[in-house]
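A favour, since you know our structure tokens better than I do. Go ahead and set the record down below.
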Amino acid sequence: MKKAIYIFLFIISQSFFAQQNNQLWKGYFSYNEIVDVESGSNAVFASTQNALFSQAVSSSNLNIYNSITGLKPDVISTIHHSDAFNKTFVGNNNGLILIQNADGSVTTKVDVIEEVPVPPNKKKINDFYEFNGRLYIAADYGISVIDIATLEFVSTYFIGTSGEETEVLQTTVFNNEIYAVTRNFGIRKASLSNPNLFDFSQWQTFDTGFWSGIVTFNNQLVATNANARTYRFNGNIPQEILNHNQAGLKLKTNGTELIVTTQNNVYVLNQSFSVLVHITQIPDFTVRFTAASVVGGIIYIGTEKDGLFSTSLANPTIFTAMSPNGPLQNKSFRLKKAPNKIWVVHGDYSQQYNPYPLDELGISTFTADQGWDVIPYSDLYGAKSLSDIAINPSNQNQVYVTSYFSGLLKMFGNTIELLNNTNTGANGLESLVLPGNPTYVDIRINSPAFDREGNLWVTNSYVNRAIKVLRANGQWQSYNLSGVTANLSTGRYNAMAIDKNNTKWIPSYNDGVVAFNENYNNKFIVINQENADIPTAVVTCLAIDNRNQLWIGTMAGLRVLSSVDRFVSDTELDVFPIIIQEGDLAQELFYQQPILDIAVDGANRKWVSIADGGVFLVSSNGQQTIYRFDKNNSPLPSNNVVDIEIDGVSGEVFFVTDKGIVSFLGISTKPSDSLGDVFVYPNPVRPNFSGTVKISGLTDKANVKISDIEGNLVYETTSSGGTIEWDTTAFGKYKVASGVYMVFVASEDGTDSMVKKVMIIR
């Protein structure tokens, strides 16, 4: 039954996305983690794991290709640009090949994934080599060939000495023979004129050593050896041309120069194999190099975490940062939206709340006028594995960031303070205690949330007094969970929700939901498998909707508490699943699905993310699936959406994934208090526009009527939240004609009204 429902939802989502314009989506990607750098005749191309960008040498304009523009990789492992065919090939860890065409379109090749008979983990693409209109693909199984003009899959060669698969790291052609550097069988070669290259016996071993790269340069074979040296071959005899002291990562040539990249070195050699440039550092950065290339006398250098840089061969002392503006890295964990700023942290912990290996990362911030900026780790007093963010609603300049190892960062303007067990007093933050190691300090703080009085609440894992509050007056207070939860000594907690009664609802690992309110004589109620119909004690997320229902996400499905007010009067709280009807059968919504996050929009609809399943938008009662977005049918870069944040003013929905951040421009904004700010957009609606007209600034349950200039009604609806959309049809039957249309808006009680106009040009 579950399978049938997912098929139905997939059809809905595919149909929806086919009608959408990517104007509804925005990308907030990082371009700092460079995987590969390639040269064209007059342009440079660089890739991260999930994006591609390029720049012509004569221009300062960057062309960016990512999931928003239609380039949807898995994990990029290598790239190649063909000047002859004006195409850029993008290889992936899973064998996927994407071709970025000159007109901006993307061609997807899944031949390696579908046709090569090797395990999925053996299909990584390591390198591309172009020769005589064919593209030779060096992969973890062997070599495949594509005809570049037709993009047809030509053949695959398994070139192990007994015909087995073997990792091929790089290929080249010299004197009409193809040479392949393999992981286990040295350098293998065969004649390109041989029609039977698919027969492993037609290949012979050229050299039995351990090599990592090979190119043809200045009519000679050049290869990098595992001994951290690069050689040219005189016949079949290798002659050393460079000792680079570190393992070679990339060996490249643009035809004029030879480029060798190691972790801490970039060497550029001329055709006489003399070193023209040796780069070991970039001023003001502590970098690890990943790849480099040369175009028109400019060296372009990719780094592991700091982006792409360029410098001149003639004067390699001044470096220019080339990467597009973006956050610190794509792997992100939590996002919070202030009215004029976005905050992102990149530290994380596992499903079991294990923060190791500890992350030493800064904080990314975004403003519309300044773009992305990074507060570096060096300014954070050693706070590791940053896990969540809380913005003071009464002062947007005061931000708290939790560390799941080091305590709590307090940020006010340019002032940063680390709060921990040494400066928060006897009722403040506590370190977990390791038997036999009393000096060990590990302060796991999470779940930051402000209540209506301006008090900041957090959780403190692995201690008895696990609930902490920093009062608005600066005083700390702790609340003990002894006798409340069964797993006190190992208690771990996710993001809490605070309701209108000031009750704190806290999702926990192995303890269900912990509800607490200090205003009712420190009352606690626990929702777990012993006293409620909850599918598992591992609760991952909570959301309180606009009708005061508590939506509970667990590692095995969804439950709902009918009203948070029940905490005040009851001693036990029962929850229920949402049952949806599919044909003649009933099914539990998100049955046994691991839920990562839930967010409520202005229309009381719920965005729900499923582990490795993308994200769903369901109606306010969960009975209707409105959208389902995943990597296949949307610009989501990953199906693991670890955090959802909604801008209630604009309706923008942010999806934080392990491979980057994107947003969907939704229509469910918070309702306004009056109709004084009603706004219609776009206006006018031009002939090439394919989206919908939005009418925002509405009060809740406002009546909206749209008529032509003669008074003929073409659309009517009631708002749920602050925005509605109109598809410019007459009640869904046909597109309305060009002309001016009147928009009449009235509040639910009829005491407020507004009239707007919108022009449609067909």
Observations:
- Confidence is low (pLDDT under 50) at residues 1-21.
- The helical segments are 2-18, 111-115, 566-569.
